[in-house]
Write a sequence for this structure.
């Protein structure tokens, strides 16, 4: 149960692959996006992820015309267009990530966005939870023959069964997720992770939207082979996803704790350690 992204194998016998979800936390500012990439690199993350939309396709005219105050204007459409990076920005992101030695990819929300990302030769595609029931998009992404990461929030098991049937199981990784922002701990249901792995015979990870890191580390202990967490410079910044994100110190501590837990897993073979021997000789009365 492995997939490979940019030459790196991801699966139960490999280190957990940690994705820093920048998403739209760049607030339409390329310099902020680069700062977030720097944070991910410094923390030791495996990849960074963005989101890509064709705004007029993903949203209805009524939704775009809906009043909504933001730094970009007074309608939801002005906000969505203000947050959307185009070819120039993504060209710079691609070059910047290459210069920093970190993988990047994105969640395309429509077919044109898949084609846009393909022109940048991304190593894989992430399907957002909101897109899990969009069969047309799923089929279009599968045609790229790239590895696929499928988030499973806001979905029933029956809907997930159907999505996996549409996509096929080749080069597919599932992410257990709860699509509340930020998520409450009683909503996380981490025990679903091994259930999905058994049901589908696929690598399974965890996409978290809670405020802390303990649950993401627990997800690794439950078998998650990929962890995705939103990243921000400051959770108090303007933006809809900032409050459900980790700040730089949080991402650094998450990486530290995941690697410590992986070290603590060991190999599953019970043995007497040499460091235990003097303690045994000191404390054990019989059976030395």
């Amino acid at each position: 149960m492995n997939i490979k992204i940019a030459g790196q194998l991801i699966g139960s016998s490999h280190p957990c692959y940690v994705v820093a979800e920048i998403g739209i936390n760049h607030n339409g500012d390329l310099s902020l996006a680069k700062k977030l990439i720097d944070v991910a690199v410094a923390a030791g993350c495996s990849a960074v992820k963005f989101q890509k939309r064709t705004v007029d396709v993903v949203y209805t005219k009524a939704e775009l015309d809906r009043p909504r105050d933001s730094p970009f204007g007074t309608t939801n459409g002005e906000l969505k267009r203000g947050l959307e990076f185009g070819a120039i920005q993504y060209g710079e992101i691609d070059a910047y990530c290459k210069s920093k030695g970190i993988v990047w990819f994105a969640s395309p929300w429509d077919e044109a966005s898949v084609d846009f990302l393909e022109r940048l030769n991304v190593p894989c595609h992430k399907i957002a939870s909101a897109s899990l029931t969009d069969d047309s998009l799923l089929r279009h992404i599968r045609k790229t023959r790239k590895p696929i990461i499928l988030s499973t929030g806001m979905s029933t098991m029956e809907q997930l069964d159907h999505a996996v049937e549409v996509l096929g199981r080749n080069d597919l990784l599932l992410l257990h997720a709860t699509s509340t922002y930020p998520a409450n701990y009683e909503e996380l249901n981490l025990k679903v992770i091994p259930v999905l792995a058994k049901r589908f015979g696929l690598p399974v990870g965890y996409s978290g939207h809670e405020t802390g890191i303990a649950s993401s580390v627990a997800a690794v202990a439950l078998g998650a082979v990929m962890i995705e967490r939103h990243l921000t410079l400051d959770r108090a910044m303007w933006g809809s996803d900032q409050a459900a994100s980790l700040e730089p110190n949080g991402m650094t501590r998450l990486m530290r704790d995941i690697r410590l837990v992986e070290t603590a897993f060991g190999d599953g073979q019970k043995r007497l350690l040499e460091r235990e021997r003097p303690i045994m000789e000191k404390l054990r009365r019989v059976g030395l």
About this structure: The chain has one domain: 2-283.
